[in-house]
Every structure is written in structure tokens, then in C-alpha cells.
Amino acid sequence: MSTENLQTMPGGRVDHDMVSVRQFLVICGGYDCMSGAVCDDLLIYNTISCVWKRYQPPIELEKIVRYDKICAFDNKVYICGIEHPLEIVHHIKSLVSFDVTNSK
């Protein structure tokens, strides 16, 4: 998974999900409010070192993060993609896990 350190807080992302794991805030999904582009990356903020990192996953996550749900257990973040949020019954299309402490 490729990573990029960011100097400032990323802006312009709306309709995203967020969860905390230990000292990390993890932001996933949403879209850019100016361009409308889907955000298919993970943003992780370390609340101790005050550093933002952007992770570009090696797999295509556009279908996951467009209608995503996120939760955390232990050091892992789990992201599942559903078909559409307006459906009465949500069908999970995909499930991805990410270990925040070692970036895997």
C-alpha cells in the first residue's frame, strides 16, 4: 500500500466515514465537494505526532468507498461496501481490513 505524508489537513471531503483506533483517526470514503470525485483513499491522522498520512490501497476501492461503512476492532479497521444506501436491505458487496498500527 503506497503512503504519502501530508503537511496540512486535507480539505474538501464530504459524506465520509470516520473511526478512531488508539491514537489514530481514520477517514474513509466520501467525495470531493468541488469536483465530485469519489475519494478512494484512506486518511489517517496520528493525534500524538500530529501527522496526516494518505494511503492509496493497492486494490480499486471506488465501489467500496462510495457507499461504505467503517468500524474498528483492536488495531484493525474494517471497511465494507454496500450496494446503495437507499435499499431496504443492505447487501455487502465487499469487505476490506487494514491494520492501522503497521499499515497493512
TrEMBL record:
InterPro entries: Kelch-typ_b-propeller
Source domain of life: Eukaryota
Alphabetical list of Gene3D superfamilies matching this protein: Kelch-type beta propeller
Record's protein name: Uncharacterized protein
Source organism: Thelohanellus kitauei
